[in-house]
Amino acid sequence: MTYVIGNSAFIGNTLFMSNSGSARTDFPASDSGKLYDSIQKLLNLPNNMRLFMCHDYEPNGRAFQWEALLV
User: Fold this and answer.
1) Cβ proximity of 14 and 36 under 8 Å
2) Which of 31, 32, 40, 64 lies at 20 to 30 Å from 25 by C-alpha?
3) Are residues 20 and 56 in contact, defined by beta-carbon separation less than 8 angstroms?
4) HSE-CB for 11 with a 13 A CA cutoff
5) Helix or strand (DSSP H, E) at 34
């Protein structure tokens, strides 16, 4: 579920920060096709939409981030 308020989208667990990936589909009743469809909807939001993530694993020692800009 994603909440869009103005130019901000709070996207929950669907996407992680850009170099961390996406949600998992190996849980019971998960569906990779539905995840793909959800990601496509997010990527079709207007440009300059602020995406607020729920997960960041700080890869390669990068500082923690919670927001990305859709361009």
Assistant:
1) no
2) 64
3) yes
4) 29
5) helix 32-43
Query: What 3-state DSSP class applies to 9?
Result: strand
Residue at token pair 């709070």: 10
> What are residue 51's DSSP bridge partners?
9, 68
Range of the structural domain that residue 23 is part of: 3-70
45, 71, 44: which is closest to 18 by C-alpha? 71
Over residues 5-63, the pLDDT tens digits come to 999 999 877 877 766 666 677 778 888 898 889 889 988 999 999 988 877 666 677 77
- How far is 63 from 59, CA to CA, in rounded Å? 8
Tally the domains of the chain: 1
Q: Quick check: 66 and 25 in contact, CB under 8 A?
A: no
